[in-house]
Write a structure and sequence with these properties.
With 224 residues, the protein is α/β, with parallel strands linked by helices. The protein is built from 6 helices and 12 strands. Strands 1, 2, 3 and 4 form a 4-stranded mixed beta sheet that branches. Strands 5, 6, 7 and 8 form a 4-stranded mixed beta sheet that branches. β5 and β6 form a beta hairpin. It is flat.
Length: 224
């Protein structure tokens, strides 16, 4: 029987793979983005012409094994043709949310200031909160998004814990045996040690997918 090999990834290895991930992602131009890594923390710099590209670069970096955290210092510089007034962006956000997201618009407030969109209100599911941000951040003229939408609680703590644990077992990307779930009211605490940032993120995504969860404290550590 061969023992499992444990490898520690160097900052140089992580940097090369983040650059490769950016080059592979069709949503971004790797030549626009600088990558520095120290102790597993990735810092992204440079500038892009849309908030969607800034977000895509951050997602690509998080997918690389060994990444502990990402500091996204990429600047959004809109070309002249992409500039829009705050009123135009607000109107476009309302239309996009009506067409492309199953959301109770009457319970949401949308504010736009200098191209930065702030979303407030209450929804029943975490995926609704995520959908709202997904729809808005790809709109032309948006420089950034603050998602302050909260999720109302409905389920009992025991039920939440059971549903999250069952979902972790079903997931092909998360090792349920390495993850411990604690539920305190509508707050979920995740603990344990996993092998990649992607596995940590998957566990958090699963916790947020449970109905009524309003906060996830992800204390899972990544063992390089």
């Amino acid at each position: 029987m061969v023992a499992a090999e444990t490898t520690t990834r160097t900052d140089e290895q992580i940097q090369r793979e983040v650059l490769a991930a950016l080059a592979f992602d069709p949503r971004v131009r790797a030549s626009e983005i600088g990558v520095a890594v120290k102790d597993g923390v990735v810092t992204l710099t440079g500038w892009v012409d849309s908030y969607a590209k800034r977000w895509a670069a951050e997602e690509a970096a998080h997918r690389v094994r060994g990444v502990r955290a990402v500091a996204n210092d990429i600047e959004v510089r809109l070309p002249g043709a992409a500039e829009r007034t705050d009123a135009d962006i607000a109107a476009a956000a309302v239309r996009a949310l009506e067409w492309d997201a199953p959301l109770p618009l009457g319970q949401l407030d949308i504010t736009v200031s200098n191209g930065w969109v702030t979303l407030r209100g209450e929804v029943e599911w975490q995926f609704q909160k995520e959908d709202a941000e997904r729809v808005v951040r790809r709109l032309q003229g948006v420089r950034g998004v603050s998602n302050l939408i909260v999720v109302r609680t409905r389920a009992q703590p025991e039920e939440l814990k059971r549903k999250i644990e069952e979902a972790l077992v079903r997931s092909a990307e998360a090792d349920a045996e390495r993850i411990r779930v604690q539920v305190q009211g509508d707050r979920v605490v995740l603990k344990g040690t996993v092998r990649s940032w992607a596995e940590k993120s998957e566990a958090e995504r699963i916790a947020w997918s449970a109905p009524g969860v309003r906060e996830v404290d992800n204390r899972i550590t990544v063992a390089l």
